[in-house]
């Protein structure tokens, strides 16, 4: 039997269509529907709407996993959960790396927040590539121009992008350290909405994320390995 508490899981992005798919795939056994929130080389963490749980999948399934996937899991006491099946996502943000391999950033995404700093990071052509990546996945883009507080030409750059980008996405001028960001991004941060931030190292993703969450969950200003 599949265990699910729809309101609890809808709050972390479950849709009726994904639930239908889960019910069709579940079969027998005491299974829990959960969302993948972290993927490492040989393990993953899933969220059941209340807590995170370490989960292990068979290698073939593990290789397919991306953050944001929904999965059928077998919960276990004091042991990692078993992640038995991955549900087909309704969309997936993907890039093709230099060797031509497909790499998934995230699955089941409502909004791609493209973060670009109005410092040396400002690069409209790179932004257009990110917009192409979002369009290819069918994910709605929003552009966040961070470090607006440091840039005297912020309005001129906004105008340049408004002239250049077609179709024109929403573009926001932000100071990622200012709590006013929460109000500016409110339309894309409703209950159950999934927003993914994309942008170069140093663009201000962690800063913005900490400001939106109101707590320091992300290390800021440190270069680290990233996919
Ligand atoms: N003044 C100002 N500083 C910012 C703003 N956004 C980010 N910063 C600073 O820019 C630096 C890099 O910001 P991060 O948030 O760490 O950048 P990131 O995009 O998470 O970078 P990676 O984790 O390497 O991908 C930090 O020193 C931040 O304090 C902003 O809007 N205004
Ligand atoms: Mg960061």
UniProtKB/TrEMBL annotation:
Transmembrane segments: none annotated. The keyword Cytoplasm does not apply. This is GTPase RsgA. InterPro entries: P-loop_NTPase (IPR027417), Ribosome_biogen_GTPase_RsgA (IPR004881), RsgA_GTPase_dom (IPR010914). It comes from Chromobacterium phragmitis. The keyword Lipoprotein does not apply. Coiled coil: none annotated. It comes from the Bacteria. Residues 91-221 form the EngC GTPase domain. The gene is rsgA. Keywords: Ribosome biogenesis. Pfam families: RsgA_GTPase.
């Amino acid at each position: 039997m599949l265990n699910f508490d729809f309101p609890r899981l809808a709050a972390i992005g479950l849709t009726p269509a994904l639930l239908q798919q889960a019910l069709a795939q579940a079969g027998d056994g005491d299974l829990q529907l959960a969302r993948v929130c972290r993927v490492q080389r040989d393990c993953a963490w899933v969220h059941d709407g209340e807590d995170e749980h370490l989960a292990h999948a068979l290698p073939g399934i593990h290789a397919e996993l991306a953050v944001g996937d929904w999965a059928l899991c077998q919960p276990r006491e004091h042991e990692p959960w078993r992640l038995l099946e991955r549900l087909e996502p309704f969309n997936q943000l993907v890039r093709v790396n230099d060797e031509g391999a497909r790499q998934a950033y995230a699955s089941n995404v409502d909004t791609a927040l493209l973060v670009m700093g109005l410092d040396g990071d400002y690069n409209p052509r790179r932004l257009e590539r990110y917009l192409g990546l979002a369009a290819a996945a069918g994910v709605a883009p929003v552009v966040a121009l961070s470090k607006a507080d440091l840039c005297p030409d912020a309005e001129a750059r906004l105008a340049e992008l408004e002239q250049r980008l077609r179709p024109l996405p929403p573009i926001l001028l932000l100071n990622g350290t200012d709590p006013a960001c929460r109000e500016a991004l409110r339309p894309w941060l409703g209950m159950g909405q999934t927003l993914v931030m994309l942008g170069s190292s140093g663009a201000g993703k962690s800063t913005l994320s900490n400001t939106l969450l109101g707590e320091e969950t992300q290390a800021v200003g440190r270069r680290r390995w990233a996919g």
